[in-house]
Amino acid sequence: MIEETIKGIMNRLQGYLTLQSGGSVTRGDIAQHESSDGSDLLENIIITLVNVEEENTLKNNYPVRIQNNIAVTEKPVLFLNLYLLFSAKYSNYDEALKHLGLVISFFQANNRLAIGTPNIDVVCTLHNIGFENLNNLWTVLGGKYMPSVIYKVRMLAFQAAPPVGGPAIVEISESEKPN
Q: Of 5, 53, 159, 179, which is the most buried if we count CB atoms within 10 A?
């Protein structure tokens, strides 16, 4: 589901960039941008998954429901947020800024996306991190900063455990009490 979500965002963004500037988008590990095998990352917007977190506010979902007079128990759904780094790797700095601006414009106009079949609805919001955290992130990723922006893509719902059910108790009868 994570891969499908990132591919869907990449495809939608690619369509937008093609119309606006002819730019291109790829998925990749931005930490590889300095290596010899990272040449395909040049002149692109690169999407890198930098963090996955659980959405704690939706953790209190009730796992038992009644369906056709059967009590069905499910493991609680796991809701995830993805943090995607959009880096503009261009040899010309002005071109990098132009394409980074187009990424921001795309998400300003399309902050809610329906991706895949069946549709996965995600909401994309700009994620601000301070200078110190930005420095730490780029140090971990390889040390050489390039124009970039982070978007929080929320709420992927994961439910892999099959439901378990049994007949619902719909009536309680009183039996004889022993003396």
A: 5
Sheet of 164-167, strand order:
64-67, 70-73, 164-167
Distance CA 157, CA 18 (A): 31
The residue ranges of every structural domain in the chain are 2-159
How far is it, in rounded angstroms, from Cα 161 to Cα 75?
A: 6
Whole-angstrom distance, CA of residue 70 vs CA of residue 67: 5
Taking all residues of the chain, what is their mean pLDDT, rounded to a whole number?
82
Q: What pTM was computed for the model?
A: 0.78
Name the nearest CA neighbour of 150 among 25, 50, 57, 16: 50
Measured CA to CA, the distance from residue 149 to residue 179 in angstroms comes to 76
